[in-house]
Design a protein that fits this description.
10 helices; Ribosomal Protein S5, domain 2; binds alpha-D-galactopyranose; six-stranded mixed sheet; 2 domains; Alpha-Beta Plaits; alpha+beta
Length: 382
């Protein structure tokens, strides 16, 4: 659990230590959870994410030349480059470089910079550590260059950086959340119109527990891009721009069985997002239970992005009366399961999950009890 100002301070101190003078700008962006709406963002569908109290801070100062120097207390190792490289490096710096490149493409190549990253967003856990890094870097670098940009535009810029430089064909959910989240709320985002609505999350009686499998299967990034291709092929076969326009009745017109399953997930998941948002608006959060389980089944069977470790955690959670609902979260093939728990039962649930998971996989899951917090704030840029 982190407060943004702690990370802000950590990044400032680390910057001073590394370079001997203070940074010119600092920005702090949160990681995210997603209540429901998985693999729907790049299909122009609906998502329901919230920012969580885990943050990444970037402290930055422009240079007089075009060199770039990066260091991080999280990812380890310093990186020094003669100039902004045209191609990816194959490490964490790519998220930084992709965004810097995109800012250069839009506003003209600027000077080089020194940047320090401090973070407590778990990496590889599906909590969007990369989205938080991109957004914090973008906000800090834009501020340093004196460029003003609307949050939505910054989110799109970061997404383009990730798609084109890093090569991950991800949607806009993570960056949008890091920029626009509001404490105590989820965001119902329509990824086609990019209209958003804040939906209140339940108060202290219920707890969002993230159970981290601590595995990340190799398959993750290639399978992600593959799913996107399959979805786009399914939409094309239906003569539609995206699966957002498709309905369950269209499914029988998709000849390829794999594409049909992928489409069914997206169509039914969009409907689940809307009904989850409705439960939250009506302040009946326990109504989320069946929606979360149905989402998991759909991701497991139709979209085929779950794995044994995630299925195990969700099954164990489903066996407990204190659990309202659970599902795998994020891109899949590892990372976290999202578990909505009656707060009084959280310790018991953690213990049960730990034990059952260790019996099966000889290791313990890691738990994060998270709260919904604000996105990156302009006043944190200084
Ligand atoms: C990753 C991507 C998001 C989204 C999710 C799956 O987190 O970055 O854009 O597609 O996977 O819902």
């Amino acid at each position: 659990m982190s407060a943004p100002h702690q990370l802000d301070q950590r990044a400032r101190n680390a910057f001073r230590e590394a370079f001997g003078y203070p940074p010119g700008s600092v920005a702090v962006a949160p990681g995210r959870m997603n209540i429901v709406g998985e693999h729907t963002d790049y299909n122009q569908g609906f998502v329901l994410p919230a920012a969580i109290d885990r943050h990444t801070a970037v402290a930055l100062r422009l240079r007089r030349d075009v060199r770039i120097a990066l260091s991080s207390d999280r990812y380890g190792g310093s990186i020094a480059l003669e100039r902004l490289p045209p191609r990816r490096q194959g490490n964490w710096a790519d998220y930084v470089l992709g965004v810097a490149r995109e800012i250069g493409n839009r506003f003209g190549e600027g000077p080089g910079f020194e940047a320090v990253v401090a973070s407590d967003v778990p990496v590889g856990a599906g909590l969007s550590s990369s989205g938080a890094l991109e957004v914090a870097l973008a906000v800090a670098l834009l501020a340093a260059r004196g460029i003003e940009m609307a949050p939505l535009k910054i989110a799109q810029l970061c997404q383009t950086g990730e798609n084109e430089f890093v090569g991950a064909q991800t949607g806009i959910m993570d960056q949008f959340t890091a920029l626009k989240a509001r404490g105590g709320n989820a965001i119902l985002l329509d990824c086609r119109s990019l209209e958003d609505e804040y939906v209140p999350l339940p108060g202290g009686q219920l707890t969002w527990l993230l159970a981290d499998t601590r595995v990340r299967h190799e398959l993750a990034s290639s399978a992600y891009n593959q799913r996107r291709i399959e979805c786009e092929a399914a939409a094309r076969e239906l003569g539609l721009t995206s699966l957002r326009e498709a309905s369950v009745d269209d499914l029988e017109r998709i000849a390829d069985p794999v594409q049909r399953h992928r489409a069914r997930h997206v169509i039914t998941e969009n409907a689940r997002v809307l009904s989850a948002a409705d439960s939250l608006r009506r302040r009946v959060p326990r109504g989320l239970g069946p929606i979360l389980y149905a989402s998991h089944e759909s991701l497991r069977l139709d979209f085929a992005v779950s794995c044994r470790e995630l299925d195990c955690l969700v099954e164990l959670a489903a066996g407990m009366p204190q659990v309202i609902g659970a599902r795998m979260m994020g891109g899949g093939f590892g990372g976290c399961a999202l578990v909505l728990v009656e707060s009084t039962g959280t310790d018991d649930v953690e213990q049960h999950l730990s034990q059952g998971y260790a019996e099966e996989f000889h290791r313990s899951p890691q738990f994060y009890r998270v709260r919904a917090v604000d996105g990156v704030m302009p006043e944190r840029v200084a």
